[in-house]
Amino acid sequence: MRFNRMLLATTLVIVALVIQVSVLARLHLPGAVPDLVLLTVVAFALVYGHVGGCLIGFGAGLLSDLAPPADHAAGRYALVLCVIGYVVGLFRPDHGRLKSATGPMAVVVAAAVGSTLLYASVGALVGDTAARHVGLAGLLFTAAVYDLLLAPFVVPGIMALARRAENDPLAETNSTKAADVSSGWLSSGTGLRIGSQRGVLRVRAARARVARAGRIKGVKRL
What parts of the sequence cross the membrane (predicted)? Predict the structure, then answer.
């Protein structure tokens, strides 16, 4: 990944994690906690594709596993967000630009439900049965509702920042300079177009002489 991608993704993931742990988790809403980190991963995956979404999801999930108060095995949420980032990245729109809000909202709902199911499944494999006592159906419903309500305020803004970081002015300037140098080299340095340019100049000079002679003859007739 590019440095500007890594810097932006790391900064926004840390900000999202701090807000989620210090604010959203303390609201004590019924059911699941609004997953701001998941929405951040979804937004980056919709711009950077499946590879970028997978890497960002793994890093964001690992930070979530290590952030207090962590009550589960480290790497569990990293696996979940890695898979979610990869799958969401497969549905990346052209050039990372959204044409309507219906598709991203459906992706958000699917990511919320899929992450909850995958997290509960991984927990069942390691012997964590907390989801059964809380109620898996309630967790799925509340996770989808909370993330869907929060998505319009998070996903479009992060996608806009990601697209802006994707445009590298330095790379575009270097490519433009390289194109100018190559075109100048082809026109002057190689001699491939010198013959054709000389022929064109000769034709133009002959036409100018003929036109000048016609004007002079016309003056003499007067």
Answer: 6-24, 36-62, 74-91, 103-122, 134-155
